[in-house]
UniProtKB/TrEMBL annotation, chain A:
It comes from Penelope pileata. Its cofactor is Mg(2+); Mn(2+). Heterodimer of a catalytic (PDP1) and a regulatory (PDPR) subunit. It catalyses: O-phospho-L-seryl-[pyruvate dehydrogenase E1 alpha subunit] + H2O = L-seryl-[pyruvate dehydrogenase E1 alpha subunit] + phosphate. SUPFAM superfamilies: PP2C-like. Its EC number is 3.1.3.43. It is found in: Mitochondrion. GO terms for cellular component: mitochondrion. The lineage of its organism: Eukaryota, Metazoa, Chordata, Craniata, Vertebrata. Belongs to the PP2C family. This is [Pyruvate dehydrogenase [acetyl-transferring]]-phosphatase 1, mitochondrial. It is an enzyme of class 3 (hydrolase).
TrEMBL record, chain B:
Decreases the sensitivity of PDP1 to magnesium ions, and this inhibition is reversed by the polyamine spermine. It comes from the Eukaryota. Gene3D superfamilies: Aminomethyltransferase beta-barrel domains (2.40.30.110), D-Amino Acid Oxidase, subunit A, domain 2 (3.30.9.10), FAD/NAD(P)-binding domain (3.50.50.60), Probable tRNA modification gtpase trme, domain 1 (3.30.1360.120). This is Pyruvate dehydrogenase phosphatase regulatory subunit, mitochondrial. It is found in: Mitochondrion matrix. Residues 48-91 form the Rhodanese domain. Its main location: mitochondrion. It comes from Penelope pileata. Heterodimer of a catalytic (PDP1) and a regulatory (PDPR) subunit. Belongs to the GcvT family. Pfam families: DAO, FAO_M, GCV_T, GCV_T_C. The keyword Metal-binding does not apply.
Length: 454, 882
């Protein structure tokens, strides 16, 4: 049983989305040309989320991928809320006042974000009031704290991440009289999510990362070849600095139990994450909240389970590491993707495949016979193989889809093998997660003309 | 890459009898600095300077010197035969679609065959024959049409079965073939050696050859070539011949007075292999597999195979680029589809070892035909280039024609299809050329079915009504860059299907055009004919009348307001142009000619009108939109719109009047339709075009008006036996030969061009006669349709070819127009064709090898039409009462 190529395409393209920055007078004045995004589920339902929005009250564009674990609730909440927290953190004092006054007097709010969403990317209506109130509290505090200084993007990003995680934690502790909402905020808090968010404003690119998703810059060298530049650090056991950080935050006695089998407390892969209050709250708080919580929570073995060697919480933080990069004309695109992509493909291959896709040129070394003895038959075989490699480029209208096709379908030669692709995509739900993880990708394309004019 | 070609060139004996050339050649090959320092100086002047030492330049030099011109200098920027000529595949094939190209190839073949004997230079001439394969029935039809043409010319040619193909060639896979065409006379040559042999012979005849001499530009004074400027100094000359191949375009544009030579280079690849274990015999036929887009020939016991891919790579669009020339590289990925086709055709060559993939640029032209002739703007500036990859096949014949042209004033054949003047400035944009040649190169192998149109370089010249007509379902074709309507697709028809079907049989638009024709016959139709070339010639005194009386054969001294159909003849009485001239006033004339006459007619008149500032000729083509109102009710529409009586009593046939139509004033209305049907041509200043069109359509509604296109027009004019210039008439056809004596006034009181020739014909009779044929046993639905170029047989003997054909919806038969000759049965000598000769024969028309009985007529069926119309009118009025 195989899927036909059209069936494969319909699976691959089900979640693809593209956004092109609109032009004014035939000119795109933004440093971003647009982006392609897509996701391929392995979990059912998928636990990855993605977001993209343009800031309307400040300049810049926000793009992020979120990898959820222990359910998708936290990733969903972060994907809905984080950009508002970032946008608010970036707003000047006057704008915050204006917004607050509008809310106060029941006037229409200034729109803060323009979302670029795939129809499958939903927002939970039920929680919007709750989320709004938390956000309002945040900006009210910002108004009170008015330092008079202009907002630093790096600081804004860090504040927003920390504040949102804090709000998630608080909302779960306080609970909600509405039982549905009460259960929701608890699920959000007890599940977790990593986040990798890019903020692009002119030539200033900031990447804030919490967890093990990655941001990779595609750089085109003078000779036309592609190289990858990492704009994030993985927060996991492979990152020695991160292991070191965790160790310094806890007493020496816990050194051995902190990281086991490359996992935090032997349980969690990412070393930083939103939610996951089981790694943040004290044992007493956890017990109190679970016991007073609804039955579904109380009966859940996972939530009741306290991590072993749990002595000095919190063990986990949502604080991101922020990297600033000043865009150059040779920086052609940025790939944001969850670990589902990075564990199947090397970053260099990712950048090459996207680069070749976007430039439409397949940089294969031209073949020259030279002095070698080659028969027509051998040459024909070689050319057919090269042709197959190129033809996969033309099936996709979306760079993210193209990457997923390679990530799932690549054979040992780095060419998309339809048979393999078909097998991987027709795995039964319960098996899929064993062969691959959820994959979420955003490919942001930069406008070299605008960038070189800075 | 160089290695192989050095070997190839080493076969050539560089020994010329003429010391001038030898010294020039030797000094370039010598490494001695002393020799290099003293090349033979250029002459200060010459009669002819030829630029380009490839097959074209050397062939022109060879033929000019044969015709007795001796004062000739040939300049080559590098070495002789070093460009495309050296790299090309060396196939001489007569499998050509038009008889002119066929004749050129036939002549070339015969010339090359005896060249070795003539010059003592080995040309590698080998008669291998060629096999053109057909994978589909349509392809086989196309080959059969060529075979019909070849057979009547006496060139051996056979349609063979796949089994016979296998017998002729040991390696061919025949499983997917339906048939093939075998030409035993086709040959292979070493193209560079042929070129060198021609150069040697020319040199012996006195032609000076200078290598390593670049032409920078041409000096022009008073519209004539005066000198050629080179990197080694100036040569004064009367004639310049641009044979610069792919650089011809640029060279044409290098002077102050640009000469537009529309051609563009594309990369062209072919493969060379090491010999087979059992090397191929030297006489194994060349294989052409057009459906696979490839050709395969023997090459030193191995094979040489190239082709014309679907996605060509044009190059040098931005002009000459030395860096690029040296970097033309093998592109295997690009060659892959052709390699696949080769291995499918000859699976056994899989084990052959590759020697090289050669990248050899070829130049292509906008209409797939080569370019020759004199520049319309610079006299004495001749061109021969743009061979569309058939340079070797055409080289001999093309060189001969151009030499004849220069020496005698015109070649021995009608070469209008190749004439540089068929193009104008509008085909010389680099973007246009780049786009068009990308379409032309794949067409080399595509099936050529009747009435195909180019898809690129379109919508360049359009009528102001273009959008209106397009919205009403117009389907377009292009002539001289101008979009013209073929027919209108009624709403609801499957449009895609109509455009994409290619067939040699009854086309899908049959009923659509039938309806348009019916409407022309019974009610009224509008055809936008704005593409026609329109000149105004006026003077302060009688100069205009006097000049035109001399240049045109009919009497133009008619009352003001009359329209005269007349030929613009050459000295031999042949049609250089066929036009309608309206006398607007005593001193001004309005001249309407076919669309593609814009450049040729202008140059012809410019060169012959006296230089007189009081005599003004203006090209007003762009100023007027032309609407043709055809049909019995055109009278009613027009009289209602103008409040003027338009009946024949008030507005007789061949009459022209400026009048108002709707709100618009100054519309030139002429009572002609170019079809023999009643109606009017409206020449409308362009700003009124939309208004007049809308008025006509609104008013015409109650008379059943509809839009029509050129296909309907074509059917109408052919069934009325109307000859069109460019299709039926050419420079070798006189009015006497096409029954148009009435358009010649031999006694108009003054001499005119061609008068003597016509007088002689009037006395002695004509040697060919334009005749109308009605196909008798032809099944419109089932049989192949005639197109043009089909052989005509009289009593079983070949007498001529058709020039155009159409289905007559009135006669419900196919009508072919063509020329009948009278060849003496024994000697083949041409005899006078009499009316009796025409009338007393049994005729057959050969369509792709199948003969159909035809009835010959010298006059149209006017009575038949009259009867029919009366009957139809009754039907129509009955319909309207409903």
């Amino acid at each position: 049983f195989y899927l036909t190529p059209p069936q494969v395409n319909s699976i691959l393209k089900a979640n693809e989305y593209s956004f092109k920055v609109p032009e004014f007078d035939g000119k795109n004045v933004s440093s971003v040309l647009g982006f392609d995004s897509n996701q391929l589920p392995a979990n059912a339902p998928i636990e990855d989320r993605r977001s993209a929005a343009t800031c309307l009250q400040t300049r810049g564009m926000l793009l992020g991928v979120f990898d959820g674990h222990a359910g998708c609730a936290c990733a969903q909440a972060v994907s809905e809320r984080l950009f508002y927290y970032i946008a608010v953190s970036l707003l000047p004092h006057e704008t915050l006042l204006e917004i607050e006054n509008a809310v106060e007097s029941g006037r229409a709010l200034l729109p803060i974000l323009q979302w670029h969403k795939h129809p499958n990317d939903y927002f939970s209506k039920e929680a919007s009031k709750l989320y709004f109130n938390s956000l309002r509290t945040y900006w009210q505090e910002l108004i009170d704290l008015n330092s008079g200084e202009t907002t630093d993007v790096k600081e804004a990003l860090i504040n927003a991440f920390k504040r949102l995680d804090n709000d998630i934690s608080l909302e779960a502790q306080v609970g909600d009289p509405n039982s549905f909402l009460n259960y929701l905020v608890l699920r959000v808090a007890f599940s977790g999510a990593t986040a990798c968010v890019a903020h692009v404003d002119g030539v200033d690119l900031h990447v804030a990362n919490t967890g093990d998703s990655r941001a990779m810059l595609g750089v085109q060298e003078e000779d036309g070849s592609w190289s990858a530049v990492s704009l994030s650090y993985d927060h996991n056991a492979q990152n020695e600095r991160e292991v070191e950080r965790v160790k310094t935050e806890h007493p020496k006695s816990e050194e051995k139990s902190l990281v086991k089998q490359d996992r935090l407390l032997g349980l969690l892969m990412p070393f930083r994450a939103f939610g996951d209050v089981k790694f943040k709250w004290s044992i007493e708080l956890q017990k109190r909240v679970v016991e007073s919580g609804p039955d579904q929570l109380n009966e859940n073995e996972y939530t009741k389970f306290i991590p072993p060697n749990y002595h000095t919480p919190p063990y986990l933080t949502a604080e991101p590491e922020v990297i600033h990069h000043r865009l150059r004309p040779q920086d052609k695109f940025l790939v944001l993707a969850t670990d589902g992509l990075w564990e199947t493909m090397h970053r260099q291959d990712v950048v090459r495949i996207v680069g070749e896709y976007l430039t439409g040129v397949h940089h294969q070394q031209p073949i020259a016979v030279g002095g070698y003895k080659v028969t027509l038959g051998q040459m024909h075989g070689l050319l057919t193989e090269r042709r197959a490699r190129i033809s996969s480029v033309f099936e996709d209208q979306n760079a993210a889809t193209h990457l997923i096709r390679h990530a799932v379908g690549n054979n040992e030669f780095g060419a998309v093998d339809h048979e393999r692709l078909s097998k991987m995509l027709s795995l039964p739900e319960e098996l899929a997660r064993m062969y691959r993880d959820d994959i979420t990708i955003i490919v942001v394309q930069f406008n070299s003309h605008v960038i070189s004019a800075y | 890459a160089a290695g192989m070609f050095l070997r190839l060139l080493a076969d050539v004996r560089w020994r010329a009898a003429d010391p001038r050339w030898r010294s020039a050649a030797r000094c370039h090959r010598s490494t001695s600095a002393a020799a290099e320092a003293h090349p033979v100086p250029l002459p200060a002047q010459a009669q002819v300077v030829i630029c380009g030492g490839g097959i074209m330049g050397t062939s022109v030099a060879y033929h000019l010197s044969k015709l007795g011109w001796k004062d000739i200098v040939l300049l080559e920027q590098g070495r002789l035969a070093a460009g495309t000529t050296r790299f090309c595949a060396g196939i001489v094939s007569m499998a050509r679609h038009t008889s002119l190209e066929l004749k050129m190839a036939d002549y070339s073949n015969k010339l090359y065959q005896q060249l070795e004997q003539e010059t003592g230079i080995q040309t590698g001439y080998t008669k291998t024959g060629s096999i053109s394969l057909a994978q589909t029935q349509d392809r086989l039809i196309s080959l059969k049409r060529i075979a019909s043409s070849l057979n009547v010319m006496g060139i051996p040619c056979e349609i063979i079965t796949p089994k016979q193909v296998a017998q002729l060639h040991p390696l061919i896979n025949i499983h997917d073939l339906v048939g093939a065409m075998y030409l035993p006379e086709d040959a292979l040559v070493l193209s560079a050696s042929v070129s060198l042999a021609l150069a040697t012979a020319a040199s012996r005849n006195g032609v000076q050859i200078h290598e390593r001499t670049s032409v920078s530009h041409i000096s022009v004074q008073k519209g004539r070539v005066t000198a050629v400027e080179t990197d080694r100094g100036q040569i004064k000359c009367q004639y310049f011949v641009n044979c610069a191949g792919q650089w011809a375009y640029e060279l044409g544009h290098s002077g102050e007075e640009p000469v537009n030579i529309p051609l563009h280079a594309c990369e062209h690849f072919y493969l060379l292999t090491h010999p087979l274990k059992e090397p191929l015999a030297s006489n194994v036929p060349t294989v052409v597999d057009p459906d696979g887009r490839i050709y395969i020939r023997n090459w030193q016991g191995g094979i040489l195979s190239g082709g014309f891919e679907k996605n060509p790579k044009p190059l040098f669009t931005e002009g000459r680029n030395q860096l690029e020339i040296h970097n033309l590289q093998e592109d295997w990925d690009h060659f892959e589809p052709l390699l696949s086709a080769l291995l499918r055709r000859m699976p056994d060559v899989e084990a052959l070892q590759i020697m090289q993939l050669v990248n050899c640029p070829e130049s292509f032209t906008p209409d797939m035909r080569c370019i020759m002739g004199e520049s319309p703007t610079v006299r004495g500036y001749f061109v021969l280039a743009g061979m569309n990859s058939a340079g070797i096949s055409y080289g001999g014949g093309a060189g001969k024609y151009l030499a004849e042209w220069m020496v005698n004033g015109y070649p021995s054949e009608n070469v209008w299809p190749l004439d540089l003047k068929r193009f104008g400035t509008l085909q010389s944009s680099r973007t246009f050329l780049r786009h068009r040649v990308m379409e032309v190169m794949p067409l080399m192998c595509d099936l050529k079915v009747p009435r195909w149109d180019f898809q690129t370089g379109r919508q360049l010249r359009t009528s102001p009504l273009y959008d209106r007509l397009d919205a009403q379902g117009a389907r377009w074709m292009e002539k001289h860059g101008f979009e013209r309507v073929k027919y209108f697709v009624p709403p609801g028809s499957d449009l895609l299907d109509l455009d994409q079907r290619k067939t040699f049989y009854k086309p899908d638009w049959f009923d659509i055009v039938g309806a348009e024709v019916k409407c022309c016959k019974e009610a009224v139709c509008v055809i936008d004919m704005s593409s026609f070339t329109k000149f105004e010639i006026s003077s302060t005194g009688d100069q205009a009348l006097e000049s035109l009386q001399y240049l045109f054969s009919n009497d133009l001294d008619v009352p003001v307001g009359h329209v005269v159909h007349t030929g613009m003849l050459n000295e031999k009485g042949g049609y250089e142009n066929d036009c309608s001239i309206a006398r607007l006033s005593k001193r001004s004339f309005f001249m309407i000619s076919p669309t593609d006459q814009q450049v040729h007619c202008w140059a012809w008149l410019k060169n012959r009108l006296p230089e007189d500032s009081n005599l003004v000729m203006e090209d007003v083509t762009w100023k007027y939109t032309a609407l043709n109102l055809i049909g019995p009710r055109a009278v009613d529409v027009l009289s209602e719109l103008s409040y003027a009586p338009m009946t024949p009593e008030h507005f007789p046939s061949l009459f022209c009047k400026e009048m108002s139509v709707g709100y618009a004033n100054g519309i030139r209305v002429m009572s002609i339709t170019h079809t023999g049907e009643p109606g009017f041509m409206l020449y409308i200043p362009i700003e009124y075009a939309l208004h007049v069109y809308n008025e006509v359509m609104n008013m015409g509604q109650k008379y059943g008006i509809r839009n029509a296109g050129y296909y309907a027009l074509r059917s109408l004019r052919i069934e009325k036996f109307f000859a069109f210039w460019g299709q039926d008439l050419d420079a070798f056809t006189t009015p006497m030969e096409c029954g148009r004596e009435f358009q010649v006034k031999l006694e108009k009181g003054m001499d005119f061009v061609g008068q003597e020739a016509l007088l002689e014909q009037k006395q002695n009779g004509v040697y060919k006669r334009f005749t109308m044929f009605i196909l008798e046993d032809h099944d419109t639905d089932m049989d192949l349709w005639p197109w043009w170029g089909e052989p005509i047989f009289r009593n079983g003997r070949y007498v001529g070819k058709t020039t155009s054909s159409a289905y007559s919806y009135t006669l419900e038969r196919h009508v072919c127009l063509g020329f009948v000759h009278h060849f003496d049965e024994k000697t083949g000598e041409e005899l006078v064709v009499t009316t009796d000769f025409i009338n007393q024969g049994e005729y057959e028309i050969d369509i792709a090898g199948q003969r159909f009985q035809a009835k010959a007529k010298l006059y149209p069926f006017s009575s038949l039409f009259a009867q029919r119309r009366r009957k139809d009118e009754e039907e129509l009025s009955g319909y309207q009462r409903e």
